[in-house]
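Support reply, case 0932

Customer input (verbatim):
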Amino acid sequence: MSSFCLGQEEEGGIQKKPKVQYNNLHVPAHMWDGPLKGRAWMWEARDSWVTDGGRARMAESSTLPTGFGELEVLAVGMVLLVEALSGLSLNSLTIFSFCKTPELRTPCHLLVLSLALADSGISLNALVAATSSLLRVSHRRWPYGSDGCQIHGFQGFVTALASICGSAAIAWGRYHHYCTRSQLAWNSAISLVLFVWLSSTFWAAFPLLGWGHYDYEPLGTCCTLDYSKGDRNFTSFLFTMSFFNFAMPLFITITSYRLMEQKLGKSGHLQVNTTLPARTLLLGWGPYAILYLYAVIADVTSISPKLQMVPALIAKMVPTINAINYALGNEMICRGIWQCLSPQKSEKDRTK
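Our regenerated output:
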């Protein structure tokens, strides 16, 4: 239990300013200017412990996180495990088909390969979260330490941003292919892929350098951008990062597919789904955006910990949806995957 202790310092029989102790924490002399200011400092110290170190201590302690029972932690772990394995398997097949099928080695398909790599990273991140969730039921602690949390948050943020921007790059590449009737050049495709990954790494590195911060999710089994404070540091990073890495990619995606519909929709030559990519961005990453925005304008602790975990679970479904849309929904890539799964049949087809 937390406790406050109030006392008087005496020196040579002369009373000095009161001495305040909160969980063995003493109020500095220059912070005490009457009971009201001293009480405000104590509450600020308490809130700082809750937001700065409370989640970390809770994640590494031997108790279950607040608001979760063992069955609920196990359920979240199983959901994350299913999402991780489905995303990894489908995107690994996509990557493997690119490596084994020469017909897929084109500039346009390079953008799909980049997206599959990013989504595989998200699924790996989910697999770590699933493992720690299942371990938490038995050992009840985050097994990778505070440094592991920072690495986990950075890796997840890089791959998430690369997935969002990669979807926008594919939308632009498809617009260039279908509307300009000219093939996308290798230089342009490679430049796009490099820009996506370098930009994602650039923005994900800022929380490690002090602009923003990575911390545990409410369940304490995965790490992401810390939104619990909602202070000026978080707010400035959130709005700047969101503009360049969510609003702009979403605008590019919607605009590219709408222009494709206007030009090719009536002729019936449009062979791609023009609505699913934008819906995936909105429904997959929108809940995170709403949660972060709420943390800026209100006290996020008013939202239950279970509800705060929903955006993370939804976002981990994006790799599977992207694989179904961009890989299994593409006839050539699907044929390449089938050839990889049945190599003997593909060799017979080539000999014929």
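We compared this against your earlier run and they match. Two observations from our side: The first helix runs from residue 35 to 59. The beta strands are 4-11, 14-22, 25-26, 214-216, 223-225. Please reopen the case if you see a mismatch on your end.
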